[in-house]
Prior knowledge:
The chain has helices spanning 2-25, 30-46, 78-89, 109-125; strands at 51-55, 58-63, 97-102, 149-155. The chain is an alpha+beta fold. Helices cover 44% and strands 15% of the residues. The protein has one domain (2-155): CATH 3.30.1330.60. The radius of gyration is 15 Å and the shape is globular.
Amino acid sequence: MMRFQVGRRVALLFPMLFVVACSCSGNNSVANLGQRMQVLLAPDIAAGRVGLEQLPDGARVTLPEQSLFPPGRGELDDKGRFLLASVIQGLLDPGILRIDVAEPAPSPAYLQAPRAGAVRQFFVDYGLGSTLQPAAVPQGSIDTAPQDLTISVSIVSS
């Protein structure tokens, strides 16, 4: 049992160590961000658990709810935490990033805020809270709102 707990802690700390290592490389290009995200998320993209869109100033990761949460729940499950850890591994220097988490409109209203909050808290737990944009209030019709939870990552020019 103790061996399992140690292994789990190492697995949870690895993404943060990876982010720190990436921040030392000095490479902060948008193209590199997109390429890193593509490589690290490739198995999840192929399996339909993640969508990745290259943006002019960064990338947008789209995560269907079933990839992160158990049905009818607002807390991340182990599969969701592992998937978010893969997203974090793809990030560059957190000091030059701006991260926005948008909750999907089709979710039941009582789950929208807890689910987006769980994803935001995951980023805070890994030391990326300062990169998070304030939670946005969804505006517009359900047709223009995201259909899946999205994480938009932008590189901030200095």
